[in-house]
Design goal:
By secondary structure, the protein is an alpha+beta fold. It is 30% helix and 27% strand. The protein is built from 11 helices and 26 strands. Strands 1, 2, 3, 6, 7, 9, 22, 23 and 24 form a 9-stranded mixed sheet that branches. Strands 14-15-13-11-19-20-10-21 form an 8-stranded antiparallel sheet. A hairpin with a 3-residue loop joins β17 and β18. α1 packs across α4, α1 packs across α11 and α4 crosses α11. The longest helix has 18 residues. It is elongated, with a radius of gyration of 24 Å.
Length: 467
Protein backbone atom coordinates (compact mmCIF):
# COMPACT_ATOMS: atom_id res chain seq x y z
CA UNK A 1 0.00 0.00 0.00
CA UNK A 2 1.57 3.25 -1.27
CA UNK A 3 4.97 1.57 -1.43
CA UNK A 4 6.10 3.14 -4.68
CA UNK A 5 5.02 6.64 -3.65
CA UNK A 6 6.71 6.39 -0.24
CA UNK A 7 9.89 4.99 -1.81
CA UNK A 8 10.14 7.85 -4.29
CA UNK A 9 9.33 10.50 -1.70
CA UNK A 10 11.97 9.45 0.83
CA UNK A 11 14.66 8.91 -1.81
CA UNK A 12 14.00 12.33 -3.34
CA UNK A 13 14.30 13.96 0.10
CA UNK A 14 17.46 12.10 1.11
CA UNK A 15 19.82 15.08 1.07
CA UNK A 16 17.37 17.29 2.94
CA UNK A 17 16.77 14.65 5.57
CA UNK A 18 20.48 14.10 6.16
CA UNK A 19 21.08 17.84 6.47
CA UNK A 20 18.30 18.12 9.05
CA UNK A 21 19.92 15.32 11.05
CA UNK A 22 23.30 17.04 10.82
CA UNK A 23 21.79 20.33 11.95
CA UNK A 24 20.55 18.67 15.14
CA UNK A 25 23.76 16.69 15.66
CA UNK A 26 25.86 19.85 15.60
CA UNK A 27 24.16 20.86 18.85
CA UNK A 28 25.68 19.54 22.07
CA UNK A 29 22.46 18.54 23.82
CA UNK A 30 24.02 16.74 26.76
CA UNK A 31 22.10 17.40 29.97
CA UNK A 32 23.34 20.58 31.59
CA UNK A 33 22.59 22.53 34.78
CA UNK A 34 19.14 24.04 35.09
CA UNK A 35 18.58 27.52 33.75
CA UNK A 36 15.37 29.48 34.01
CA UNK A 37 12.93 28.06 31.47
CA UNK A 38 15.41 25.34 30.49
CA UNK A 39 15.08 22.35 32.86
CA UNK A 40 18.07 20.53 31.35
CA UNK A 41 20.14 23.54 30.39
CA UNK A 42 20.82 25.37 27.15
CA UNK A 43 21.85 22.47 24.91
CA UNK A 44 18.73 20.29 25.16
CA UNK A 45 16.49 23.37 24.93
CA UNK A 46 18.31 24.51 21.79
CA UNK A 47 17.96 21.09 20.17
CA UNK A 48 14.25 20.98 20.99
CA UNK A 49 13.66 24.44 19.57
CA UNK A 50 15.55 23.52 16.41
CA UNK A 51 13.55 20.31 15.90
CA UNK A 52 10.20 21.99 16.51
CA UNK A 53 11.11 24.73 14.04
CA UNK A 54 11.77 22.02 11.46
CA UNK A 55 8.45 20.33 12.16
CA UNK A 56 6.54 23.61 11.95
CA UNK A 57 8.26 24.47 8.67
CA UNK A 58 6.96 21.19 7.27
CA UNK A 59 3.39 22.06 8.18
CA UNK A 60 2.88 20.19 11.45
CA UNK A 61 1.15 21.60 14.50
CA UNK A 62 3.73 21.83 17.26
CA UNK A 63 3.63 22.24 21.02
CA UNK A 64 6.39 22.85 23.54
CA UNK A 65 5.78 21.42 27.01
CA UNK A 66 7.93 23.78 29.10
CA UNK A 67 11.13 22.72 27.29
CA UNK A 68 10.77 19.23 28.70
CA UNK A 69 9.14 17.74 25.60
CA UNK A 70 8.00 18.95 22.20
CA UNK A 71 5.38 17.42 19.91
CA UNK A 72 4.41 17.52 16.25
CA UNK A 73 0.95 16.30 15.17
CA UNK A 74 0.05 14.95 11.75
CA UNK A 75 -3.55 16.13 12.13
CA UNK A 76 -6.19 17.04 14.71
CA UNK A 77 -7.98 13.69 14.66
CA UNK A 78 -8.32 11.02 17.35
CA UNK A 79 -5.04 9.88 18.85
CA UNK A 80 -3.87 6.51 17.56
CA UNK A 81 -0.07 6.35 17.40
CA UNK A 82 2.73 8.11 19.25
CA UNK A 83 6.33 7.96 18.02
CA UNK A 84 8.56 8.68 20.97
CA UNK A 85 12.12 9.87 20.29
CA UNK A 86 14.70 11.92 22.18
CA UNK A 87 17.09 14.74 21.37
CA UNK A 88 19.41 14.58 24.38
CA UNK A 89 22.70 12.72 24.15
CA UNK A 90 25.37 11.14 26.33
CA UNK A 91 28.64 13.09 26.68
CA UNK A 92 30.88 13.20 23.62
CA UNK A 93 33.68 11.32 25.38
CA UNK A 94 37.13 10.68 23.95
CA UNK A 95 38.50 8.45 21.22
CA UNK A 96 36.77 9.90 18.15
CA UNK A 97 38.75 9.20 14.97
CA UNK A 98 36.48 9.73 11.94
CA UNK A 99 35.28 13.17 12.97
CA UNK A 100 34.69 15.30 16.04
CA UNK A 101 31.60 14.43 18.05
CA UNK A 102 29.62 17.51 16.98
CA UNK A 103 30.87 17.75 13.41
CA UNK A 104 28.71 15.12 11.66
CA UNK A 105 30.03 13.74 8.38
CA UNK A 106 28.96 11.11 5.87
CA UNK A 107 31.71 8.62 5.03
CA UNK A 108 31.41 5.24 3.33
CA UNK A 109 27.63 5.26 3.61
CA UNK A 110 27.62 6.07 7.33
CA UNK A 111 26.67 9.27 9.10
CA UNK A 112 29.10 9.81 11.99
CA UNK A 113 28.54 12.04 15.02
CA UNK A 114 27.10 12.02 18.52
CA UNK A 115 23.35 11.48 18.28
CA UNK A 116 23.27 10.23 14.70
CA UNK A 117 21.88 6.89 15.86
CA UNK A 118 20.84 7.79 19.42
CA UNK A 119 18.38 9.31 18.78
CA UNK A 120 18.43 12.38 16.53
CA UNK A 121 18.79 10.44 13.28
CA UNK A 122 15.81 8.16 14.03
CA UNK A 123 13.77 11.16 15.27
CA UNK A 124 14.24 12.92 11.93
CA UNK A 125 13.49 9.68 10.07
CA UNK A 126 10.14 9.60 11.89
CA UNK A 127 9.52 13.25 11.02
CA UNK A 128 10.14 12.51 7.35
CA UNK A 129 7.80 9.53 7.51
CA UNK A 130 5.11 11.91 8.71
CA UNK A 131 6.06 14.34 5.93
CA UNK A 132 5.66 11.57 3.37
CA UNK A 133 2.19 10.66 4.62
CA UNK A 134 1.15 14.32 4.74
CA UNK A 135 2.61 15.52 1.45
CA UNK A 136 1.61 12.41 -0.52
CA UNK A 137 -1.96 12.82 0.72
CA UNK A 138 -2.14 9.28 2.08
CA UNK A 139 -5.60 9.09 3.69
CA UNK A 140 -5.62 8.63 7.48
CA UNK A 141 -8.52 8.95 9.88
CA UNK A 142 -6.49 9.12 13.10
CA UNK A 143 -3.53 11.09 14.38
CA UNK A 144 0.12 10.25 14.78
CA UNK A 145 2.15 12.40 17.13
CA UNK A 146 5.93 12.69 17.15
CA UNK A 147 7.06 13.24 20.74
CA UNK A 148 10.54 14.67 21.19
CA UNK A 149 12.03 14.45 24.66
CA UNK A 150 15.19 15.90 26.17
CA UNK A 151 16.08 13.74 29.20
CA UNK A 152 16.03 10.12 28.04
CA UNK A 153 19.68 9.52 28.89
CA UNK A 154 19.41 10.72 32.49
CA UNK A 155 16.18 9.28 33.84
CA UNK A 156 13.32 10.33 31.52
CA UNK A 157 11.94 12.96 33.88
CA UNK A 158 10.87 14.82 30.71
CA UNK A 159 8.42 12.08 29.78
CA UNK A 160 7.16 11.87 33.34
CA UNK A 161 6.34 15.59 33.04
CA UNK A 162 4.62 15.05 29.67
CA UNK A 163 2.41 12.19 30.80
CA UNK A 164 1.18 14.20 33.75
CA UNK A 165 -0.40 16.44 31.11
CA UNK A 166 -1.23 14.09 28.24
CA UNK A 167 -2.59 10.56 27.93
CA UNK A 168 -0.81 7.69 26.24
CA UNK A 169 -1.89 6.95 22.70
CA UNK A 170 -3.38 3.47 22.14
CA UNK A 171 -0.08 2.49 20.49
CA UNK A 172 3.45 3.84 20.91
CA UNK A 173 6.78 2.94 19.39
CA UNK A 174 10.20 4.42 19.98
CA UNK A 175 12.84 4.31 17.22
CA UNK A 176 15.57 4.07 19.84
CA UNK A 177 16.76 0.50 19.41
CA UNK A 178 16.96 -1.80 16.40
CA UNK A 179 14.61 -3.74 14.17
CA UNK A 180 12.51 -5.81 14.33
CA UNK A 181 10.31 -5.24 17.43
CA UNK A 182 11.68 -4.96 20.94
CA UNK A 183 8.77 -6.03 23.12
CA UNK A 184 10.77 -6.92 26.25
CA UNK A 185 12.97 -4.49 28.12
CA UNK A 186 14.80 -5.79 31.13
CA UNK A 187 14.26 -4.21 34.50
CA UNK A 188 17.04 -2.22 36.06
CA UNK A 189 18.73 -1.67 39.37
CA UNK A 190 20.75 1.53 39.67
CA UNK A 191 22.94 0.53 42.56
CA UNK A 192 24.15 3.64 44.37
CA UNK A 193 26.35 2.83 47.35
CA UNK A 194 28.57 4.54 49.92
CA UNK A 195 30.87 3.93 52.86
CA UNK A 196 32.74 6.21 55.23
CA UNK A 197 35.92 5.23 57.02
CA UNK A 198 38.72 6.57 59.17
CA UNK A 199 41.47 8.32 57.25
CA UNK A 200 44.94 6.75 57.40
CA UNK A 201 48.24 8.50 56.73
CA UNK A 202 50.22 5.24 56.60
CA UNK A 203 52.28 4.82 53.44
CA UNK A 204 52.13 3.65 50.77
CA UNK A 205 48.50 4.65 50.23
CA UNK A 206 45.75 5.49 47.78
CA UNK A 207 45.06 9.22 47.84
CA UNK A 208 42.18 9.25 45.36
CA UNK A 209 40.32 7.23 42.73
CA UNK A 210 37.90 8.62 40.15
CA UNK A 211 36.08 6.90 37.30
CA UNK A 212 32.86 7.25 35.36
CA UNK A 213 30.65 10.03 34.02
CA UNK A 214 27.19 8.48 33.64
CA UNK A 215 25.67 5.46 35.32
CA UNK A 216 24.64 3.98 31.96
CA UNK A 217 28.07 4.28 30.34
CA UNK A 218 30.87 1.77 30.91
CA UNK A 219 33.87 4.04 31.56
CA UNK A 220 36.77 3.97 29.16
CA UNK A 221 39.06 5.90 31.52
CA UNK A 222 39.84 5.83 35.24
CA UNK A 223 42.44 7.57 37.39
CA UNK A 224 44.06 6.92 40.76
CA UNK A 225 46.73 8.79 42.70
CA UNK A 226 49.20 6.66 44.67
CA UNK A 227 51.55 8.00 47.33
CA UNK A 228 54.57 6.14 48.67
CA UNK A 229 55.34 3.88 45.70
CA UNK A 230 57.81 4.83 42.99
CA UNK A 231 57.02 5.16 39.32
CA UNK A 232 59.24 2.15 38.65
CA UNK A 233 57.40 0.01 41.22
CA UNK A 234 54.01 0.88 39.73
CA UNK A 235 55.17 0.23 36.18
CA UNK A 236 56.50 -3.15 37.28
CA UNK A 237 53.17 -3.95 38.95
CA UNK A 238 51.34 -3.10 35.74
CA UNK A 239 53.66 -5.37 33.78
CA UNK A 240 52.80 -8.23 36.10
CA UNK A 241 49.03 -7.65 35.97
CA UNK A 242 46.89 -10.59 34.90
CA UNK A 243 43.20 -10.84 34.18
CA UNK A 244 42.72 -7.30 32.86
CA UNK A 245 43.17 -7.84 29.14
CA UNK A 246 42.23 -4.82 27.07
CA UNK A 247 43.20 -2.33 29.77
CA UNK A 248 46.44 -0.37 29.54
CA UNK A 249 48.00 1.81 32.21
CA UNK A 250 49.76 5.14 31.99
CA UNK A 251 51.80 6.79 34.75
CA UNK A 252 52.84 10.33 35.66
CA UNK A 253 54.97 11.18 38.72
CA UNK A 254 54.60 14.55 40.43
CA UNK A 255 55.19 15.99 43.93
CA UNK A 256 55.91 12.65 45.61
CA UNK A 257 52.92 10.80 44.18
CA UNK A 258 52.12 8.95 40.97
CA UNK A 259 48.95 9.30 38.93
CA UNK A 260 47.85 6.04 37.34
CA UNK A 261 45.46 6.19 34.40
CA UNK A 262 43.68 3.12 33.11
CA UNK A 263 42.58 3.21 29.48
CA UNK A 264 39.87 0.85 28.26
CA UNK A 265 36.89 1.30 25.94
CA UNK A 266 33.48 2.74 26.81
CA UNK A 267 30.17 1.15 25.85
CA UNK A 268 26.50 1.30 26.77
CA UNK A 269 25.93 -0.19 30.22
CA UNK A 270 23.19 -2.46 28.83
CA UNK A 271 25.93 -4.22 26.79
CA UNK A 272 28.90 -4.29 29.15
CA UNK A 273 30.57 -7.04 27.11
CA UNK A 274 31.03 -4.50 24.30
CA UNK A 275 33.37 -2.34 26.38
CA UNK A 276 36.58 -2.69 28.34
CA UNK A 277 35.84 -1.32 31.79
CA UNK A 278 38.67 0.98 32.89
CA UNK A 279 37.12 1.38 36.36
CA UNK A 280 37.23 -2.30 37.25
CA UNK A 281 40.59 -2.67 35.53
CA UNK A 282 42.12 0.07 37.67
CA UNK A 283 40.36 -1.17 40.82
CA UNK A 284 41.90 -4.58 40.28
CA UNK A 285 45.32 -2.96 39.81
CA UNK A 286 45.03 -0.91 43.02
CA UNK A 287 43.72 -3.86 45.03
CA UNK A 288 46.85 -5.86 44.17
CA UNK A 289 49.34 -3.11 45.11
CA UNK A 290 51.33 -3.46 48.36
CA UNK A 291 49.57 -0.53 50.03
CA UNK A 292 49.39 -0.07 53.81
CA UNK A 293 46.60 -1.97 55.53
CA UNK A 294 43.74 0.37 56.46
CA UNK A 295 39.94 0.61 56.32
CA UNK A 296 40.10 2.24 52.90
CA UNK A 297 42.08 -0.62 51.39
CA UNK A 298 39.81 -3.23 52.95
CA UNK A 299 36.90 -1.56 51.16
CA UNK A 300 38.84 -1.36 47.90
CA UNK A 301 39.47 -5.10 48.07
CA UNK A 302 35.83 -5.70 49.00
CA UNK A 303 34.62 -3.84 45.92
CA UNK A 304 37.09 -5.78 43.82
CA UNK A 305 35.57 -8.98 45.20
CA UNK A 306 31.94 -7.90 44.83
CA UNK A 307 32.30 -6.52 41.29
CA UNK A 308 35.59 -7.82 39.87
CA UNK A 309 36.90 -6.99 36.43
CA UNK A 310 35.18 -9.14 33.82
CA UNK A 311 32.19 -10.05 36.00
CA UNK A 312 29.29 -8.71 33.93
CA UNK A 313 26.64 -11.09 35.30
CA UNK A 314 26.52 -10.12 38.99
CA UNK A 315 28.19 -13.31 40.21
CA UNK A 316 30.29 -11.49 42.80
CA UNK A 317 27.17 -9.90 44.28
CA UNK A 318 25.33 -13.22 44.24
CA UNK A 319 22.57 -12.05 41.89
CA UNK A 320 23.37 -13.93 38.66
CA UNK A 321 20.20 -15.27 36.99
CA UNK A 322 18.54 -15.72 33.60
CA UNK A 323 15.28 -16.75 31.95
CA UNK A 324 14.38 -18.07 28.52
CA UNK A 325 12.53 -14.99 27.22
CA UNK A 326 14.77 -12.16 28.36
CA UNK A 327 18.19 -13.77 28.93
CA UNK A 328 20.70 -13.13 31.73
CA UNK A 329 21.04 -10.37 34.29
CA UNK A 330 23.97 -8.09 33.41
CA UNK A 331 25.93 -5.69 35.58
CA UNK A 332 28.25 -2.79 34.78
CA UNK A 333 30.26 -1.03 37.51
CA UNK A 334 30.30 2.48 36.05
CA UNK A 335 31.02 5.17 38.66
CA UNK A 336 33.45 5.19 41.58
CA UNK A 337 34.98 7.92 43.73
CA UNK A 338 37.39 7.15 46.56
CA UNK A 339 38.85 9.83 48.81
CA UNK A 340 40.92 9.49 51.97
CA UNK A 341 37.76 8.99 54.05
CA UNK A 342 34.86 8.05 51.76
CA UNK A 343 33.81 5.72 48.97
CA UNK A 344 30.78 6.27 46.78
CA UNK A 345 29.81 4.79 43.48
CA UNK A 346 27.17 3.22 41.31
CA UNK A 347 26.59 0.10 39.25
CA UNK A 348 24.00 -0.47 36.54
CA UNK A 349 22.28 -3.86 36.47
CA UNK A 350 19.81 -4.92 33.76
CA UNK A 351 17.45 -7.56 35.13
CA UNK A 352 15.40 -10.25 33.32
CA UNK A 353 11.67 -10.91 33.65
CA UNK A 354 12.29 -13.32 36.52
CA UNK A 355 13.98 -10.59 38.61
CA UNK A 356 12.41 -8.76 41.54
CA UNK A 357 13.37 -7.01 44.77
CA UNK A 358 13.57 -10.30 46.66
CA UNK A 359 16.06 -12.02 44.38
CA UNK A 360 18.11 -8.99 43.22
CA UNK A 361 17.90 -5.96 45.50
CA UNK A 362 17.84 -7.71 48.86
CA UNK A 363 20.75 -10.11 48.12
CA UNK A 364 22.82 -7.24 46.69
CA UNK A 365 22.17 -5.13 49.79
CA UNK A 366 23.13 -8.02 52.05
CA UNK A 367 26.32 -8.77 50.12
CA UNK A 368 27.49 -5.16 50.31
CA UNK A 369 26.43 -4.78 53.94
CA UNK A 370 28.64 -7.74 54.86
CA UNK A 371 31.60 -5.68 53.64
CA UNK A 372 30.58 -2.48 55.42
CA UNK A 373 29.11 -0.84 52.31
CA UNK A 374 25.60 0.63 52.21
CA UNK A 375 23.56 0.07 49.06
CA UNK A 376 21.19 3.06 48.99
CA UNK A 377 18.82 1.88 46.25
CA UNK A 378 15.31 1.08 47.44
CA UNK A 379 13.58 -0.61 44.51
CA UNK A 380 14.10 -2.42 41.25
CA UNK A 381 12.62 -0.79 38.16
CA UNK A 382 10.54 -3.73 36.91
CA UNK A 383 10.86 -5.27 33.44
CA UNK A 384 8.53 -4.29 30.57
CA UNK A 385 6.71 -6.77 28.31
CA UNK A 386 4.18 -6.31 25.50
CA UNK A 387 2.68 -9.39 23.87
CA UNK A 388 4.11 -10.24 20.50
CA UNK A 389 0.68 -11.46 19.40
CA UNK A 390 -1.02 -8.04 19.46
CA UNK A 391 -2.27 -6.52 16.21
CA UNK A 392 0.04 -3.56 16.83
CA UNK A 393 3.19 -5.70 17.00
CA UNK A 394 2.09 -7.88 14.10
CA UNK A 395 1.61 -4.77 11.95
CA UNK A 396 5.05 -3.46 12.81
CA UNK A 397 6.65 -6.78 11.94
CA UNK A 398 4.68 -7.10 8.71
CA UNK A 399 5.80 -3.63 7.52
CA UNK A 400 9.39 -4.39 8.44
CA UNK A 401 9.32 -7.69 6.55
CA UNK A 402 7.68 -6.18 3.47
CA UNK A 403 10.20 -3.37 3.16
CA UNK A 404 13.37 -5.27 4.03
CA UNK A 405 12.75 -8.89 3.07
CA UNK A 406 14.13 -9.82 6.47
CA UNK A 407 12.35 -11.97 9.01
CA UNK A 408 10.53 -10.04 11.72
CA UNK A 409 10.03 -11.10 15.29
CA UNK A 410 10.31 -9.95 18.87
CA UNK A 411 13.47 -9.46 20.89
CA UNK A 412 14.45 -8.59 24.44
CA UNK A 413 17.04 -5.95 25.31
CA UNK A 414 18.91 -4.86 28.40
CA UNK A 415 18.61 -1.19 27.53
CA UNK A 416 15.54 0.69 28.66
CA UNK A 417 13.80 2.95 26.16
CA UNK A 418 11.20 5.66 26.51
CA UNK A 419 8.38 3.12 26.28
CA UNK A 420 9.47 1.17 29.34
CA UNK A 421 6.58 2.39 31.47
CA UNK A 422 3.93 2.64 28.74
CA UNK A 423 1.22 0.01 28.65
CA UNK A 424 1.38 -0.65 24.91
CA UNK A 425 4.81 0.67 23.98
CA UNK A 426 7.56 -1.10 22.06
CA UNK A 427 10.88 -0.12 20.49
CA UNK A 428 11.02 -0.36 16.71
CA UNK A 429 14.13 0.58 14.72
CA UNK A 430 15.97 2.49 13.56
CA UNK A 431 19.02 0.25 12.99
CA UNK A 432 19.05 -3.13 11.31
CA UNK A 433 19.67 -6.03 13.69
CA UNK A 434 23.16 -6.76 12.37
CA UNK A 435 24.40 -3.17 12.79
CA UNK A 436 26.53 -2.17 15.77
CA UNK A 437 26.46 1.63 15.61
CA UNK A 438 28.72 2.35 18.60
CA UNK A 439 25.90 3.97 20.53
CA UNK A 440 27.31 5.86 23.54
CA UNK A 441 30.86 5.26 22.32
CA UNK A 442 33.34 7.11 20.11
CA UNK A 443 32.62 7.26 16.37
CA UNK A 444 28.88 6.70 16.85
CA UNK A 445 27.25 6.34 13.45
CA UNK A 446 24.02 5.58 11.64
CA UNK A 447 23.97 3.76 8.30
CA UNK A 448 22.44 6.19 5.80
CA UNK A 449 20.47 3.50 3.95
CA UNK A 450 19.06 2.27 7.27
CA UNK A 451 17.82 5.75 8.17
CA UNK A 452 16.11 5.98 4.78
CA UNK A 453 14.64 2.50 5.14
CA UNK A 454 13.37 3.42 8.61
CA UNK A 455 11.58 6.49 7.27
CA UNK A 456 9.90 4.34 4.62
CA UNK A 457 8.89 1.65 7.10
CA UNK A 458 7.56 4.24 9.56
CA UNK A 459 5.49 5.87 6.81
CA UNK A 460 3.96 2.51 5.93
CA UNK A 461 3.20 1.84 9.60
CA UNK A 462 1.46 5.22 9.92
CA UNK A 463 -0.58 4.56 6.79
CA UNK A 464 -1.76 1.17 8.07
CA UNK A 465 -2.32 1.92 11.76
CA UNK A 466 -4.00 5.31 11.30
CA UNK A 467 -6.15 4.68 8.22
Amino acid sequence: MYREEIEQYIESHKAEMLEDICTLCRINSEKMPYQEGMPYGKGPAEALSCALTMAEKYGFAINNYDNYVGTADLNDKEAQLDILAHLDIVPAGDGWTVTEAFEPVVKDGKLYGRGTSDDKGPAVAALYAMRAVKELGIPVTKNVRLILGTDEECGSSDIEHYYKIEKEAPMTFSPDSSFPVTNIEKGSLTGRFEADFKESAALPRLKSFTAGTKVNVVPGKAEAVIEGLSLEELEAAAGAMEGCEGIRYEFAAEDGSVTVRAIGESSHASKPWKGKNALTGLLSFVAKLPLADCEQMKLVKSLNTLMPHGDIYGEGLGIAMADELSGPLTLAFDILSITESRIEGCFDSRCPLCADDDNVLKPAKAAMRAHGITLLSEALDPPHHVSGDSEFVRTLNRCYEEWTGKEGGCVAIGGGTYVHHLKNGVAFGAAMPETENRMHGPDEFAVVDELLASAKIFAQVIAELCR
